[in-house]
Structure formats: structure tokens, C-alpha cells
Automatic annotation (TrEMBL):
Pfam families assigned to the protein according to its UniProt record, in alphabetical order: DNA_pol3_delta2, DNA_pol3_gamma3, DNAX_ATPase_lid, DnaX_C
UniProt protein name: DNA polymerase III subunit gamma/tau
Membrane-traversing stretches: none
GO cellular component terms listed in the entry, alphabetical order: DNA polymerase III complex
Subunit structure: DNA polymerase III contains a core (composed of alpha, epsilon and theta chains) that associates with a tau subunit. This core dimerizes to form the POLIII' complex. PolIII' associates with the gamma complex (composed of gamma, delta, delta', psi and chi chains) and with the beta chain to form the complete DNA polymerase III complex.
Species name: candidate division WOR-1 bacterium RIFOXYB2_FULL_37_13
Length: 498
């Protein structure tokens, strides 16, 4: 037997199983009980909130052998056929692929025929906003005065695109996003029935990423079960989504508050090296500061967060001023727009966050950053020269100080230099900075006249000797041949895992 996706397997089959949308359910149940069923309904709301599911249950309730009834049996032939999508009298139309006037004219011809198996012919037109203007006009008269045996249910995620003439002939019902707690409770129920072991924090992260869509949340749970098996942890969710985990968001926000450039860049580097998406990190960061802003305005009731997360967020919110948070959100939103047009998302994120630090006044005293001197491995063809060069040894010894001074003089130069390593001083007196594969952009940026000049001035200031710099990409052929993995490919092409 073919595998059935969880969102299909757990689709609600009667009104009592619907999660959220209590006002919709009550309206339709009362309409059936009081025999006040309208000839046309317009279901408006975000994706995954139950529009199509409720439309099918409504059709089942009208055509059940015990009906019309607000509690369809689910066992009679009509109920079973509606459930399985085989009901002759329940016609589902995808307006995105049947949007022209010819399809609507065909519909107008067929509505005249009486039902074959049930009491009503129910037309469910999904994404109805996709119909052309001509198609809407063709539907108008039929929608206004349909035969007594026909019920129309129009569903849309974009109510603003529905012509007023169409909307005025329907009873409009607005679906709301499903609350975080309702999504979590339903996911927990599914996990128990499917024998999944899942962490509470993982449930919370899945529900938050579903953004009020039950279908998206259940689909993500299904995908996680395929990825992690029957035991699902919060790390599995973070790895699969490529999103910023809780600790990363708080750490980055702290670095911004403290104006700590080195720590901020290191956090980003580690996160992206682990496969986090630069785009997703930015989106999560915008939402994080949005949550902080709401807390600053005492609007915590608008946040769908766990108590533990909320306490932690309140502690961090105390170190930010309202104006700074607003400015940070504005700057981060600008970075998101820039990312859409730039092939190097990581670079845009790094430079953009530096702009955030430059353009916001820190609310805490800047932290004095200690940059540890790295131990460098010489990969040049003349290691003896490097190993015995007093000047090169001095460069290595004072590299941390050089980085610190470059950061104060040129943030952009620092971003590039921070990714490189000094590997030798050549016979003609040039200091060679080596970059790993995948960091060619940093190499080229460092060699730009302005950045190169700034770095050389700092080196002269620290060493007391003028040295020009040059750059190269690490020659992997002189080292042990690495195993090619997906992370290797990602680094080479400066890509991201999605």
C-alpha cells in the first residue's frame, strides 16, 4: 500500500475534528440545523487553515444519508465517496489551472443537471482569485441565481482580488491563522498516534515555522520523521530548516547590543558552516527583534511564545532602547531586500550587519574584544624561509593586534582580513595572506586599493616596518586530498544548503 502523507492522513473528517476556526464551524453547523444554508459561500484566509477541509465536510454534511446534518456519519456511501474524492456530486475545481471563460461556461452548462447520488451538487472552487475577469463575469449570473440543488464554495488566500460583484453574492467567512498552542497540541496528538518521540522545543519550533498553517506544520513533521526517524530533536528541526536556533539568535542580538564585531562575525561563520541558511538566519533575526519591540511596548500577549522563551526574551529586551530596536529592524529589512538581488547572500548578511553596528548607538559599553592569535600552518613551497624569518614570526605574534586595529580603521577590510591567514613573507618582501577555497570574494575585496592601503598602514604602525600585502587562494594540492562532501561543495561555490 502506498504511503499516505501525514497531512492527508490526519485531515479533519467532521466539524468536531477541525482545529481552530470555531466561529466558522459554528456558523455552518447552525446554518444546516436551522435550514438556512446559503447558495454560495466565500472562504477567505491564509493557506493551511482548513478552507478546503471544511468545504468537504460541509459537502459531506449536506449529502450524508442522515442529512443534511451538522454531524455526518462518515460511513455511508456518500460520506465515504466525499472523503476519498470520488463523489460525483462534489466537484472540486482548481481555478489556477481552470481560470478561463471556456471552463466557466462549461460549469454553467453542467449546474443545470440534478445530483446523481446526493441532495446537492457542491462546487468547491479553490484559489478562485485566479479566475480571469471574463471568467468572473461568466460566473456572476449563475452565482447569483443558481438552481436549488447547487451550492458554491469559493476559497481564496487573496480576498482583495475577488470582485465586489462576486463577493456581494456570497456569504463571506474569514479564516484566521491557527494559534501556536492549537498547532502544538495537534502535532503532539499526531506524534503520539504515530509513535514519534519528539522534544517539546522541537514541537514549538515546528509550530512557529508553520506560521499558523496546520498543513505546513504537519508536512514539516512528516519531513522530520523521514529525516530523523521516530526520535525528533530540536537540532533535527534546525538542521532540516537551516534556520537560526534559539541560542544563535540571542547570541547575535547580544553581540549587536555590545557592538562586538569579532564575536558577531564568528557566530555567523560557525552557523553558516553548519549549514544554516543566511537568508533564514536574517528572517529569524528580524522576527527576534520584532518580538523584542513588542515586549518594549508591553504587548507580550501578541507573542505566541513559550513561558521559558518569553522570560529569556524579556531579559534581553531590557538592554535595548526602543529607538535602537526600531532602527535595527529597519536596517535588517533593507538587508533582506538586498539579498534578493545579490548572488552572495552570506556576504550581504555580513556587510549588512556591520552597517547595523555602524548605524546604531550601543546601549551597553563596547566589550573589549580579545582576539586570540591563531596557529598558522605554512602551505607555501618554501617553508624553511618562512619558519626562520624573524619578521614573519613577528607578524604572527602581533596578528591579533593588527586585526584589532584594522577593525577600528576599516570594518570592511577587517571582514575580509579576518577570513585569511598570513602564510609567508616572500623574497621581494610581500606578506602573503592565504584564503580557503570559497573565499575568493574576501580575497578580491581585501586587494581593493582602499582596503589594501588601510591594512598596510596598520601593519607598518604595529611592526614599525612597511610591508606590502598580496593574497592567494589556498592550494589544496599541497595538502592531504580532502574527502568531497556536500559541505565542501557548499564552500567552493559559496552556496547554501536548503
Amino acid at each position: 500500500m502506498a504511503y499516505i502523507s501525514l497531512y492527508r492522513k490526519w485531515r479533519s473528517q467532521n466539524f468536531d475534528e477541525i482545529v481552530g476556526q470555531k466561529h466558522i464551524v459554528q456558523t455552518l453547523k447552525n446554518a444546516i440545523s436551522q435550514k438556512r444554508v446559503a447558495h454560495a459561500y466565500l472562504f477567505c484566509g491564509p493557506r493551511g487553515t482548513g478552507k478546503t477541509s471544511i468545504a468537504r465536510i460541509f459537502a459531506k454534511a449536506l449529502n450524508c444519508k442522515d442529512g443534511p446534518t451538522p454531524s455526518p456519519c462518515g460511513k455511508c456511501d456518500n460520506c465515504v465517496k466525499v472523503r476519498d474524492g470520488h463523489a460525483v456530486d462534489v466537484i472540486e475545481i482548481d481555478a489556477a489551472s481552470n481560470r478561463g471563460i471556456d471552463e466557466i461556461r462549461d460549469l454553467r452548462e453542467k449546474v443545470r443537471y440534478v445530483p446523481v447520488e446526493g441532495r446537492y451538487k457542491v462546487y468547491i472552487i479553490d484559489e478562485v482569485h485566479m479566475l480571469t475577469s471574463e471568467a468572473f463575469n461568466a460566473l456572476l449570473k449563475t452565482l447569483e441565481e443558481p438552481p436549488e440543488h447547487v451550492i458554491f464554495v469559493l476559497a481564496t488566500t487573496e480576498a482583495s482580488r475577488i470582485p465586489v460583484t462576486i463577493e456581494s453574492r456570497c456569504q463571506r467567512l474569514d479564516f484566521s491563522r491557527i494559534s501556536l498552542d492549537e498547532v502544538k497540541d495537534h502535532l503532539k496528538k499526531i506524534a503520539e498516534e504515530e509513535k514519534f518521540q519528539i522534544e517539546e522545543k522541537a514541537l514549538d519550533l515546528i509550530a512557529r515555522n508553520g506560521e499558523g498553517s496546520m498543513r505546513d506544520s504537519v508536512s514539516l513533521l512528516d519531513q522530520l520523521a523521514s529525516y530523523a526517524g521516530n526520535t525528533i530533536t530540536v537540532d533535527n528541526v534546525v538542521d532540516l530548516l537551516g534556520c537560526a536556533d534559539e541560542e544563535l539568535l540571542f547570541s547575535i542580538a547580544n553581540s549587536i547590543a555590545q557592538n562586538n564585531v569579532a564575536e558577531l562575525l564568528q557566530q555567523l561563520r560557525e552557523a553558516i558552516d553548519k549549514g544554516r541558511s543566511a537568508v533564514q538566519i536574517l528572517r529569524d533575526l528580524i522576527m527576534h527583534f520584532r518580538n523584542i519591540l513588542l515586549l518594549k511596548f508591553k504587548a507580550s500577549e501578541a507573542l505566541e511564545l513559550t513561558k521559558e522563551y518569553l522570560v529569556k526574551l524579556e531579559t534581553q529586551a531590557a538592554i535595548f532602547e526602543v529607538e535602537k530596536v526600531k532602527k535595527i529592524i529597519h536596517l535588517l529589512s533593507r538587508i533582506e531586500l538586498d539579498m534578493k538581488w545579490h548572488p552572495h547572500a552570506r556576504l550581504v548578511l555580513e556587510v549588512g550587519l556591520l552597517d547595523v553596528l555602524e548605524n546604531t548607538v550601543p546601549t551597553l559599553p563596547p566589550v573589549i574584544q580579545k582576539i586570540e592569535t591563531k596557529t598558522f600552518v605554512t602551505i607555501d613551497s618554501s617553508p624553511a624561509q618562512v619558519a626562520h624569518s624573524p619578521l614573519f614570526n613577528k607578524v604572527k605574534e602581533l596578528w591579533g593586534e593588527i586585526l584589532e586595529k584594522v577593525k577600528k580603521k576599516s570594518l570592511y577590510g577587517f571582514v575580509s582580513l579576518h577570513e585569511g591567514e598570513p602564510v609567508e613573507i616572500t623574497n621581494d618582501g610581500k606578506l602573503i595572506i592565504s584564503f580557503r577555497k570559497g573565499y575568493s570574494f574576501h580575497k578580491e575585496r581585501l586587494l581593493e586599493a582602499k582596503n589594501k592601503s588601510s591594512v598596510e598602514e596598520i601593519i607598518k604602525e604595529v611592526l614599525g616596518t612597511a610591508i606590502s600585502i598580496d593574497c592567494k587562494i589556498e592550494n589544496s594540492e599541497k595538502t592531504t586530498k580532502p574527502q568531497v562532501t556536500i559541505d565542501t561543495v557548499k564552500d567552493i561555490f559559496e552556496g547554501e544548503i536548503v
